[in-house]
Structures are given as C-alpha cells and as structure tokens.
Amino acid sequence: MLSEFENIERSSGAEKAADLRKALHFLLRRQFVFAGDPRTGTVYNILMDGRFRDVVDGFFDSCGYRVHRDPEAQWAGIVAMDEDVPLPRMKLDETIVMLVLAANWQQEVNVGAVEDRAVVVATLNDLFDRYREMAQHGGGGAISAARFRDILREAAQRSLVEIGDFDDEQQDCEIRIRPMIKLISGGDALQRLERYVRSEEARFPQPAGDEA
C-alpha cells in the first residue's frame, strides 16, 4: 500500500495524497460520510473519485472492510466483511435502537415518504414511542429516554442520523434517518424486531388475566 500512496503523490500531488489519507482516517473513525454534512466535501469527493477507488478499496479490504458507495444518495462507508474483524460489538440496547431506526426508515421508503438522498424524517418522540410500544409488548427491560437519546447521538457521530435542535417546549426534536442505516441493521430490520419481541414474550410471559 505504501508504494500506491507514493504513486498517487507523484501523479496527483502531495495535497491529493494528504486528502486521501484524511478520507481513510475519517471512515475508520466515523464509518460513513454523507455529502450533506459540513466539512465533508473533500472526504466524500476523494472516496468517489475513480482515480483513487482501487487504492481506497484495497486499503479497506486489507483491513477486513468492504467499501459501499451510493452516488445517487451521496454517501459512502465501510462495513466489516465478517465477524473476525475486531470491531466494537454493539450492546443489545444499541442494536435494538438501530433496528427501530431501520424499520422506520424502510416503512417510510415503502410508501414513498422520503426526502432527497433517501432521507426519512422522524421525531425523537415518535421513535421512542415506537420502541416503548415494542418493549411493553415484549415484557422485557426498557431503555430509558435518556439512554435512547444517547444512542441516537452515537449514531449521529457515525453519520447514520442527523439530530435537529431540541425544542424545550415540545420536548422533542427532528431525527433525519439516512439510508446507510440499512447496512447496519440488515435488510430485515422489521422481522428482526418482531423476532426479538417474540423472544422477550417467551422470557417474560404475561400473567393470566393481564392485558397484552
């Protein structure tokens, strides 16, 4: 890989080589880049530039990642190719929130309720209510509202969502869910949520006479 970087520096200049290293570091740190975010234009353009595609893909392939690009929705990112890649594993509550986001995104896409770049707009309260309804139906332990917001902030750090300004009066804010969420959750987020609920129902059966 070192020789390939040296070739880029000779052919495209030291500035482009530096931009390439910046883009690689960005994805290793954030996992995804979305062209609409502030100060991400250089990173996105480098990753989508055909001159550097083989080097970018080869670098991440050697690290155990596959590069995904979507020029229409204007994002790029990396996903581990198998479970042997030493990535931090998501906790159960993080996984559940990601599935809630993905299921909401997919359902809105199915009815055409999307904005530019395949973004789906929701609100914090609507998403939390959806999770809470699922958790109550399953009977398992619940994620607190504060923890739910913390997980969404972590998702924002990975460029998976954009969180709007918090409205103190409404105690709510806009959550813009981006299409990269489908790579984190898989293509069957709703079915996985339903399986989770059924498993929780088996672990915590409702007492006789109680409402479901």
TrEMBL record:
Lineage top rank: taxon: Bacteria
Family annotation (InterPro entries): JetB
Name this protein carries in UniProt: DUF4194 domain-containing protein
Origin species: Bradyrhizobium iriomotense
Taxonomic classification: Bacteria, Pseudomonadati, Pseudomonadota, Alphaproteobacteria, Hyphomicrobiales
